[in-house]
């Protein structure tokens, strides 16, 4: 949930939870979001106002515990009437969206939950917004830069670390990311990462 806004997200089990969108959203580690995206409306589903969403959360089943979702950049609140997974998408029904025309008008909109309604993470898990902005230090003590964004590749996240000479791309895997203890991440640079 920003699993983006990522989103997201003590020592890391190298399991970051965030939104699944491949977006570049610079944020600072100190700014906690009010809302966390759980999906993006792809299209209507059927003729009764149900919405098909691209999933942006690692916990789509958590929506069953949420009463209100927020639509678009203005975060228009709507009561969530139902949610279910369908193949690799999420189907939701919201109050006030009663037919295909109303559902189609929401195409492309982000659907979010209040940060207070976001899934509780296990110790060692982080939303992306909690990682962006952290200092990155090598296991030898060298300051390598600051995490500026997180890329989602499908197999593992990649932390983009910016410094005065450019950027490093660090895969979020246990052999590289040794620990996350805000305000810093300790890493081991395996051969070929520099």
Brief summary of the model shown:
With 194 residues, the chain is mainly beta. The protein has two helices and twelve strands. Strands 1-2-5-4-3-6 form a six-stranded antiparallel barrel. Strands 10-9-8-7-12-11 form a six-stranded mixed β-sheet, with no helix packed on it.
Unreliable stretches covering 5 or more consecutive residues: 1-30
Proportion of helical residues: under 10%
Reading off the top of the CATH hierarchy, the class of the domain at 128-187 is best stated as Mainly Beta
CATH homologous superfamily heading of the domain at 128-187: PRC-barrel domain
Quickly give the structural class.
mainly beta
Mean pLDDT: 84
Q: What is the H/E order?
A: EEEEEHEHEEEEEE
Q: Could you tell me how far the N terminus lies from the C terminus, measured between alpha carbons in angstroms?
A: 30 Å
* Largest sheet, spatial ordering of strands: 1-2-5-4-3-6
The CATH topology of the domain at 128-187 comes to: SH3 type barrels
Total helices: the number is 2
- The backbone outline, from C-alpha atoms, is elongated
- Do you know the CATH architecture of the domain at 128-187? Roll
Strand composition percent: 35-45%
User: What's the story with the biggest beta sheet?
Assistant: 6 strands, antiparallel, barrel
